[in-house]
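Exercise: predict the fold of this chain.
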Amino acid sequence: MRVILNGKEMNIRAVWLEDREKGIVKMIDQRYLPWTIKFFVSRSSEDTAIAIERMIVRGAPTIGVTGAYGVYQAVLESINKKDFINVLRAKVKRLQETRPTAVNLFNVTERMLSAIIKGYESGKSSRELINMAAEMAEELAEREIEANRKIGEYGAELIPDKASILTHCNAGALAAVDIGTALAPIRVAYEKGKEVTVYVDETRPWLQGARLTAWELEMEGIPYYLISDNAAGYFMWRKEIDLVIVGADRITINGDVANKIGTYKLAVIAKENGVPFYVAAPLSTFDLKTRSGRDIPIEERERDEMIYVRGYDESSGDLRRVLVTLSNARVKNPVFDITPNKYITAIITEVGVLRSIDDIKRALDKLSSHSF
């Protein structure tokens, strides 16, 4: 992604393996955006688990790749242990338990763990297992980025010139290692010369739209408006929105989608107003073991995210949090919801635009046969 840091233009990813020999993973600390760019340096699989848990990184594809790097770190840490497999399993389980809804994390870490155990049982040396884990993690990162490019190409064809596009949460490069999922078609359409304007939902309570999507679009020079979450229906009713594109944290066999809380409401309003509603996601976001959205575990996070708002204090130059309601308010804070497939116009993937359950089944056949 294009980032301007200290007046210099850079092209960096949301997360990357900084030092392969030492197992050091580096990532953009998304908690500080858009006010300042800071990097979090993970020196262990536990550091990486904390980074996922505390939303230093977030977004299903980025979480998946970060988890893959965490498995590599776990291999480095465990390789000389007498009980290598059990120690490794425990470290991978710790990574998997950080965020329960995004399926990429489970898919990636399970595949890596299975491959490493198989390699160990077949007699591979410690060095071979370490190299194997590093190469799998790096290959996964490259696959995600390549998938995002293809999503961008397929999705850009759905965007007419002079389109106004509504997004929700952040499904850009920060959420998907590089390029993005929901933002990928917008980036490609803009690069091809189409005039686009993005309406960015603020996305309470973590404000990923206001903080992260707006920042990414600002870095790219793509025109946008920041709107409150409650304004989206008004703009659709006024016919000012041509299409909606969102990302996904998990997609079930029947095409139901788990995504940031508030997505379901947007899909219903879009259908009521005749606005196409697209989900952009790589095949790694599909869950082959879950039949419908009702079977997806929905993460509920701590109450402080609801009763406080973090922001930048211009007078002091520091980040602060302020109380926005009663300190003893009872809170429910689900951070994802389920959008039934009937409200989704199509799912944009790296293998094409899936418009029907039959399309989804064909895509899942490709996914089930896909391996390292």
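Check your answer against the key: The chain is about 40% helix and 20% strand.
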